[in-house]
Amino acid sequence: MSTSESELRKSMQQYGKQAFSETEQIKILNLLLEDAKKQLSREHEIYQLIENYQLKLSNEINLNQAIQFVNKFIIELESKDKDSSTVNYLKQHGFYRILYRHPKLLGQELPQDDILHKLLRSGFIGVGISAVMILLFISTAFFTAPLWLTAITTGLFVGASTYLSGILYGVVNDIFATHANLPYFLLGHQSQQTSLLRTNDKVAQGIAWGVAATFGPVIIATLIFTVAATITAFFVPIATFLLPVMMIAMPLIAVGAEFYARKKAREYLDTEGNFYWIGSNDYQRRGLNYMCPTNEERAAWYANSDRNLFGFTKVPLIGLGALIGLVVLSGISMFLPPVLFISPVIAIAIPAAFSAVTCATLIAGGIYMQVNRNKQLDDRYRLEFERDEIVPDLYLDEDMEYIRKIAKIYAQNEPTVEPKQEVINTENYSFLFDKKPKQAMPNIKQEEFEPARLSQAGA
Asked: Where are the transmembrane segments (predicted)?
């Protein structure tokens, strides 16, 4: 048997690299925290936070457990570091890359024939069709066309505007939601769901889920608006001036849902001692245990369900009100100022412009999502989709010079840690300077190696 391509690639990646033990890698984490701590005054809240976690690390010998500690530290730091100065310092000096470049969880992607992928594709096809309907409406509105054609194109335009408004609501709502708690979408939240996209980009995930989750209800609303508007347009002018109001109102519902979700998250924190049940399948539970270990994160996860419930109960009411308003105002058009119905600017240009801008925004969002659908950022939400197993070690390839530099600095200075904490000195970090690169041999199986060695000996 020959050595597989994956085994050869792994051997090539390891060749010439320094191999550190778990204890040595924990020391490196401690050293990086020491460097961040030295940028602060001893009285600073973040200084004390770092020192507390250093104390935990000083007694830890298991790398996986140490990474769990540091991951919790990052979560707490991000919530307490109001000006993000320490967070930015750690990011700029490679701490996030070192800690998160090797994902700690295997990702599971939904198959391409899953209903969510079909809804996502259909959603953007609908955006493209809406763009055509806008152009068709403009062409028949500004140029002479038969009444029947004008009525049909006006009805289709109303339907397109309704569709774009609904999809825009979904995207805005879910971008808010992914920033509140990304794993709710990254891992899925129903029992049959895993990852829709591979990316941990919050905006890309929000766009994808916003389109996929709202397509079904929105297409129903679109059909109702289209039929009602088309029938009405055969008898009276359509109150198209109402459409921009609807397109503004829909994203505002998402803003209202954001405030509602924050309120629910606070209520969960006030009433729940612990969040034992979270996630709907094993994939989600394992991911949430690592990505959302704090009650604050888990409360946000629960609140995203309330956010969705808020939207699915309030949006239909707004839509129903818009439909009634559209039909009623069109029906009493003879009692309203004629300028609302005959002005090219008010009745045609402004509604078409709002719809066109919304359509262009969604198309740009779709392009962004497609470009970034496999992008992996260096944070705790990174999942391993390329390999069949996770790499347990820290990622040190790009930052060894920086690590050696700060090791020299803190080896020469007086330690400022508490007595129980491990002292930063030359002896503790000599492995950074003395260790030779590991000369990794290809991972050849025993039965392959023996004949080769015998043949060389015979030669």
From this structure: 124-147, 207-235, 241-261, 317-336, 342-368
User: d(Cα 423, Cα 418) in Å, to the nearest integer?
Assistant: 9
Q: Position 101: which residue type?
A: R
Query: In sequence order, what are the residues at sequence separation of 6 or more whose Cβ sits closer than 8 angstroms to the Cβ of residue 49?
Result: 73, 76, 77, 80
Record the tokens describing residue 52, joined without a space.
């507390």
pLDDT tens figures, 304-327: 999 999 988 888 988 899 999 999
Q: Which pLDDT tens digit goes with each residue over 84-100? A: 999 999 999 999 999 99
Q: Under a CB-based contact definition with an 8 Å cutoff, are residues 130 and 160 in contact?
A: yes
- The domain ranges of the chain are 1-16+437-459, 18-102+391-435, 115-372
CB atoms within 10 A of CB 174: 29
Nearby residues of 34 by Cβ (< 8 Å), 6 or more positions away: 54, 406, 410, 417, 424
CA 317 from centroid of its chain's CA atoms: 29
- Cα separation, 165 vs 167, in Å, equals 6
CA distance 256 to 273: 27
Among residues of the chain, what percentage have pLDDT more than 70? 85
Sign (positive or negative) of CA dihedral 65, 67, 70, 75: negative
Q: What is the pTM of this model?
A: 0.85
